[in-house]
Structure formats: structure tokens, C-alpha cells
Amino acid sequence: MRPGPALLSRAGARAAFARPLPPAGYARPAAEVAVDLLGRTIVRRTPTGFRAARIVETEAYVRGDRASHAYLGPTPRNLAMFATPGTLYVYRIHQVHCLNAVTVTGEAVLLRAAEPGAGVVGSTVGPGRLARALGVSREENGSSLVTGPVRISSVRPAGVRVVRGPRVGIRWDARRRLRFAVDGSPWLSRPRIGRRPTTYRSFAQS
After folding, report:
1. Residue 163 reports pLDDT greater than 70
2. Whole-number pLDDT of residue 194
3. What pLDDT shows up at residue 60?
4. CA neighbours within 13 Å on the CB side: how many for 78?
5. Where are the domains of the chain?
6. d(CA 163, CA 15)
7. Distance, CA of 102 to CA of 99 (rounded, Å)
8. CATH architecture of 5-199
9. What's the rounded Cα separation, in Å, for the pair 30 and 34?
10. Span 101-110, pLDDT tens digits
11. Could you tell me which residue, 56 or 72, shows the higher pLDDT?
């Protein structure tokens, strides 16, 4: 999967921002959306321009999942996870922020790593570094990924090869293979996933 125009120019980032994934693209089980977001471009609009990166690694947090923030129900901290599909859920942990795309009620996809593109300075490997490089904090928590300042493009390369494995840094349900990544990407976080790749069909492949 080679970098497309959205990664090569600010104009490309602007175009990706103008074509966000619609709510229907998020209104599915988190495990499905976690695969479908791979290869898409996430764009953050700032006062000075756009910051873009191509998503290469995700994790799904699903219903009945003891590792999920939503496992015990709504709280002031996780309320965005119970909002409409396509809501951005941002939480703070260990002095860093993490970005999540809300799917169906109580489920979300953690964005773990991305390939840096236009306007991005700093590492995008790891959820905290990705949020920092895009300039996202708790201020964006609860905003719309369709109409807000952070959006994910509806355009996705064809034939994205995906590998999967267990999630990282969790105690509960640690063996569930709900971590997904673009096979062979140099931007993946550690430990790298080493499973056999599979080509998935996208919701809105283009």
C-alpha cells in the first residue's frame, strides 16, 4: 500500500477532510470497523492547516469485553462511547491521550498507529504519539468524526492486506485477537503482529 495524495500534499489532506466516512461506515461491530479503517486517512484541522496520517493499526473494544472502558456502563469519563456511531472518544492515560472511533453503542476502535503525512511532526507509532502528532486532546472528546475537526476519509485503497493478533497492554481478555494492522507497514507499534495476512473487503472501498 503506497502513500496516496492525502499523504503527499496539504491539498490532498484538505480533500480527504472534505470526504469523511459517513455515519453508516461506523454503525457496525467494532471488529469490522477496526479492519475497515486500516488504510484510510485521518485528518485533523488546526488553525494553521491540516495534519494527516494513514491508519495502519487498530484495536477493537467490543460488548462484554472486560478490557473496554464501557464494560461497566456509562460514566462521565466514557460517555462518548455511548454516543452515536462516528463519535470521537478521547481519553487520557499515563499523561497521553488516545483516539477512538465509536461504532455501535458501547463499542469503539482504538487508533494505535499511522503513517505520517501532510503537516505531521513527530512519531505516529503508538496511540499516545499519534494523538500528539495530530494535536488531539480531551477537548475533541465527543466531537463528530463526520462534521468535527477530526475526520477519517471515506476513501480507502483496495486490497489492504491485514494481519491480526492479541491486543497490547491489557489485563482482561488479553488473548482475544482484536488487534489489526496493515501487513508489512514500518509504522506498526511493538510487539509487531506476525500472523498470516488476509485481504478484507471494505465497507466503502474506493
Report:
1. yes
2. 65
3. 94
4. 17
5. 5-199
6. 29
7. 10
8. Roll (3.10)
9. 6
10. 999 999 999 9
11. 56
**Does an H or E element contain 16, and which?**
helix 10-17
Rounded CA-CA distance 145/127 in Å is 17
CA angle at 190 for the pair 101 and 122, rounded to the nearest 5°:
70
* Helix spans in 18-162 (H): 23-26, 30-36, 127-134
Q: How many CA atoms lie within 13 A of 166 on its CB side?
A: 11
9 residue type, one letter: S
* DSSP string across 144-176: BTTTSSEEEBS---TT-EEEEE--SS-STTTTS
SS3 81: helix
- Environment class of 45 (CB within 10 Å of its CB; exposed 0-12, middle 13-18, buried 19+): middle
> What type of residue sits at position 128?
G
Q: How far is Cα 44 from Cα 49, in angstroms, rounded to an integer?
A: 8
Q: Pick the closest to residue 112 from 20, 192, 29, 2 (CA basis).
A: 192
Distance, C-alpha 58 to centroid of its chain: 6
- Predicted local confidence at residue 31, as pLDDT: 95
How far apart, in whole angstroms, are the C-alpha atoms of residue 3 and residue 8? 7
> What predicted TM-score, i.e. pTM, was given to this entire model?
0.88
